[in-house]
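One thing: can you check what follows?
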Amino acid sequence: MGLSIKDEETERLVRQLARRERISLTRAIRLAVTNEICRNARRTPEEIEEIDRRLGDLQAAVQKDGFDHSLSDDAILGYDEFGLPN
């Protein structure tokens, strides 16, 4: 069985989750998908559409504002290369 992820952001997020939880990439994907299915099972289709719309609006706003996606998590949070606050 195989799964091919061809989206860099998705791969980055899966790797981030795996590191944070100290689990394999396969387990990280399973965890994320299982959590999403459980979370969405409690929502109506209308609620899911509204969430999708709001996320799309947020994504458009971030892209419009010229957010620098090349920044590291630490740089975004204001930490230097030694993990100290700037």
User: Anything to note?
Assistant: Residues 45-64 form the longest helix (20 residues).
